[in-house]
Amino acid sequence: MIAAPREWEVDPQILAAGQRVLELFASVQGAPEQFPLWYASDLIDARTQDPASMPEHGQSLDDTLAHAVELMKQGLCNVSHPLYFGYISPRPHPAAVLGDFLGSALNQTPGAWRAGPSATMVEVEVLHALRSLFGLEPVVGRLPGGVFTGGGTLANLIGLKLAREQLYRQHPERLRSGGLKPRIYMSREGHFSVAKALDVLGFATDALVEIDTDEQGALLPEQLEQRLAHDVASGYTPMCLIGVLGTTATGAIDPLQHIGELARRYDAWFHIDGAAGLALAALPEARRHMSGLRDADSVTFDPCKWMFASFGIGCLLVRNGELLGGSFWAGGPYWEERGELDTFKMNLYGTRQFRSLGVWCLLQHLGLDGYRKLLRNMTGAAAHLRALMATDPGYCLIPDQQIMPVVAFRPVGASADLVTRLVALCQQRNLAYPSVLEWKGERYIRVAISNYQTTLADVERFKHALDELLYEFSPSPLLRIPL
Ligand SMILES: Cc1ncc(COP(=O)(O)O)c(C=O)c1O
């Protein structure tokens, strides 16, 4: 006898346990200042050294999530707090978080049409939207103009792999004879992920040439030009020129147009690392300072920075997706070819998390104009802090291009130790969470605004708190120097 079909109902356990998660999420978002900027209880510390084992017998879903929620509260870096100024870790936007949750909950992958048709469609749509938002050239070829990755490191790696393939196509003879000596050029302020990627791709450490920067942290093009001429005369082949669009330390933008021209002159690949800074290309007033962006062969972008997605989503944008298709063939006897769009054939990843749904939800919810407003909240708060520091003779600023929401300064005459102590005290007393920056032989306090809800009043609060701390160290302003 065939059993009657099972009756299904909405699982009440999921709703109850999910409610706990949503409650914590909504309260961190809605009232971020009720949680400390950074906190780790002794228990979290102890269990990191001595991990607890998993229970032999399980518990209810509700109890499990109650436990997980409690653990999160006991060791939280509160990036949603308006005075969190560390490391370009954004307050995640609820639309992005909930979109990610939806993608994970249904376990869709955008890696293959048959495993996620809507996921594949959303991914193509988001890539298209990003290219257009940042003013990149329209895509050529039938494949999408980019791929999503787990972050900027992997996006840089894939960009460099494409650069290597171009080099090999250009120099088959020298490749065969072993006489090819490739070189990659980037400023000293470029991100360490490039060196890691080159290592993984099998390049020797001296393949990466670092070029000095000006006082703002932007690559010196004359030095690049001289180095290229010298290297070519010495038998090296420029494989890739990298322009940084928004350095991690100070948010500097390299002279992209100049670097692009040099790349063309030397037949080298032109890659832009805009992991953080490309977001600002959405603002016409900032994009004016990014000429040359459209000439790039590949561009790295992390939506988990100033596009307010949670950590772990990056992408590489390329004008010609066919190059990615040619770079990453994949298939097997178990994979029947159907002529569908399978993005695992143009990416290092096979099965992949569906993170573009969060970005899709964010852009749908805010609209492009709404997104620009959030960016302007951050650049406005950074400009205000810059102005406060510039008009106070007690502080000196690192001169910056005033485009990215990153500001670095130090109290005049402060020793390096004092700067470290001030930053630590800000964190310990729950006043703010800036970071320490070593810059051209001096130590600075660095503020990266990545929270679209940080207001002008918040940066004023921060400045006031710093002034008070300084006063503690030296009650009379006249005695402030040297500290
Ligand atoms: C300019 C730049 N490039 C690349 C990366 C690496 O990105 P991820 O940490 O997402 O791998 C970062 C990270 O901060 C960055 O600032």
Could you characterize the architecture of this molecule?
The protein is of the alpha/beta class. It has 3 domains: 12-78; 101-362, Type I PLP-dependent aspartate aminotransferase-like (Major domain) (Aspartate Aminotransferase, domain 2, 3-Layer(aba) Sandwich); 373-480, Aspartate Aminotransferase, domain 1 (Alpha-Beta Complex), CATH 3.90.1150.10. The chain contains 15 helices and 13 strands. It has helices at residues 12-30, 42-49, 61-74, 94-105, 117-133, 152-170, 172-177, 192-200, 221-233, 256-265, 284-287, 321-327, 356-390, 416-428, 456-473, and strands spanning 38-40, 75-77, 146-149, 182-187, 208-211, 237-244, 269-273, 298-301, 314-318, 395-397, 406-411, 435-439, 442-448. The protein has a 7-stranded mixed beta sheet with strand order 3-9-8-7-6-4-5, sandwiched between helices. A 4-stranded antiparallel beta sheet has the order 10-11-13-12. A two-stranded antiparallel ribbon has the order 1-2. Helix 10 links the parallel strand 6 and strand 7. Helix 4 packs antiparallel against helix 13 (356-390), helix 5 (117-133) packs parallel to helix 13 and helix 13 packs across helix 15. The protein binds pyridoxal-5'-phosphate.
